[in-house]
Amino acid sequence: MKMNNSTIAAISTAQGEGGIGVIRISGEESITIADKVFRAASGKKLSDMKGYTAAFGHIVRGNETVDEAIATVFRAPNSYTGENVVELSCHGGLFITREVLRNVLDAGATPALAGEFTKRAFLNGKLDLTEAEAVIDIISAKSRIAARSALSAKEGALWKRIEKIKNELVSTAAHFSAWADYPEEDIEEVTDENLKQKFENWLSDLEKLLSTYDKGQTVKEGIDTVIAGKPNTGKSTLMNLLSGHDRSIVTDIPGTTRDVIEETVLVGDVILRLSDTAGIRETGDTVEKIGVDIAKNRLKTCGLVLAVFDGSRALDDDDIKLLENIDDVPSVGIINKTDLGVEIDRDYIKDKLKNVVEISAKSGEGYDKLSEIISKIAGTEDFNPSEGILANERQRNAVVNAKNALIEAKNALEIGMTFDAVEVALEEAIECILELTGERVSEVVVDNVFHNFCVGK
Ligand code: GDP
Fold it and tell me: Would you say the C-alpha torsion 218, 329, 404, 383 has a positive or negative sign?
């Protein structure tokens, strides 16, 4: 894969006003370039400093002082990218950070592309591809558990899990070819029986790995959740209650349809992508009927239904219609307005829905119970962030392909094909695993991975 040798620079902190802004420079010339724009108060040159040391001083442009700064020197290969790196920490203003970057670029660095620092770390063998992908997941994590899981992946949780399978596949393939190619040597015979057992074990390991994908997606992306219920049951109030918790890490999704409100909220450890729907009721009005049909369809296709009932009133036809339209999708029946006393036939609802909780959306009473039920449904309760999970479609595809190749190898063995045919399929499985870790991967795939990064990372 092509390695760009230029020295690159970018602002690595978020663009905006902050206490500190960091301009990162990486490449062979980074220390020489930084020496042109930074004057240490001690008078010492950065090129005379050891790795992992820092100096206080000023960013200068000719005779002019641009800002105070601290320069940290990292020497190859002991840096994020594996190259010489200097990080200039200056004041975190939009203007100042850009001015320092401009200075660095004028001194000979080239602007870094999106994800280029991490891409260099990957190309220099500091990270495998799954660990590099985890960097972006750490940055974009919206919940504690998503961040923990991404951090484990960055620290090699998935890599270790794959490495184990990879080593076994490689050593079996090697044994195989040694045995087939050097029959005169005293190499342990490969028998159908011990091979079959190995295939069973690998397939079961890969199956287990694949089963982590869905839960991982739930943890990372959240659950597509519909709040359903007739008017006035308290859906908007419930939405406010849910978004009121940890509002600061909640993002609004603007620009949705006329009568659908969408919002992403965090309930306990679970991210819910909430949307409201039209009520489910009988109607002669054509336009309203379209709305009702869309709502019915959403109830079947979403990941979670929160069905809201006004607990202070008797159950009516609209409530019953809603209950009849909730199929196999995970759901929680929410009997709301408990502060007004419960009039509704709660047994009827409990008979129809597995999970029912009584709350007052207005006062917040019952929220904890609701949160507990939601984490149970989402599976975050027993989710182990450090187990190593498949975090994206690229990783999942590679494992699916490896699994298919192993199934082919196993079939070849079972129908009595030559060991050659088995070996070819085994090699194919190894290729897929190497693609997963990035040890043998095309430039297009690598570019695609880093394309999703921001500049400065
Ligand atoms: P929506 O039409 O389903 O979105 O219902 P709203 O959230 O607009 O609520 C309808 C009315 O019920 C409003 O006057 C709310 O203040 C009231 N309400 C909602 N939740 C509760 C609750 O838990 N207790 C009480 N007493 N009133 C509630």
Answer: positive
Quote the tokens at residue 67.
């800002």
Q: For the sheet with 270-276, list strands across it.
A: 262-267, 270-276, 223-228, 304-310, 331-336, 356-358
Q: Which residues contact 141 (CB under 8 A, 6 or more apart)?
A: 147, 150, 220
How many CA within 13 A on the CB side of residue 7? 24
Is 62 exposed, middle or buried (CB count within 10 Å of its CB: 0-12, 13-18, 19+)?
Answer: exposed
Torsions phi, psi of 447, nearest 5? -60, -40
Task: Write the residue with the smallest CA distance to atom 26 of ligand 1.
Answer: 337
- 187-192 contacts, C-beta under 8 A, 24 or more apart: 190/419, 192/413
Q: Could you tell me which residues come within 8 angstroms of residue 433 by beta carbon, excluding any fewer than 6 positions away?
A: 162, 165, 166, 169, 398, 402
- Residue 44: both structure tokens together: 């010492």
H helix runs in 283-418, sequence order: 286-301, 317-325, 346-352, 367-378, 393-414
Nearest protein Cα to ligand 1, atom 19: 234
Please give the full DSSP string across 406-418, using - where no structure is assigned: HHHHHHHHHTT--
For residue 277, give the 3-state DSSP assignment: coil
Specify the pLDDT at position 17: 87
How many angstroms separate the Cα of 286 from the Cα of each of 118, 157, 192, 292, 431? Answer: 55, 54, 67, 10, 56
For residue 77, cis peptide bond before it (omega within 30 degrees of 0)? yes
Helices marked H in 26-68: 30-37
3-state class of 372 per DSSP? helix
> pLDDT digit string (tens) for 367-426?
999 999 999 999 887 788 888 999 999 999 999 999 999 999 999 888 887 778 888 999
State mean pLDDT over 113-125.
Answer: 94
Query: Residue 361 has what pLDDT?
Result: 94
Q: Is 364 in the pocket of ligand 1 (CB under 6 A)?
A: no
In short, whether 217's Cβ falls inside 6 Å of ligand 1 is no
12 lines ligand 1 (CB under 6 A): no
Is ligand 1 within 6 A of the CB of residue 277? Answer: no
d(CA 404, CA 401) in angstroms, rounded, equals: 5
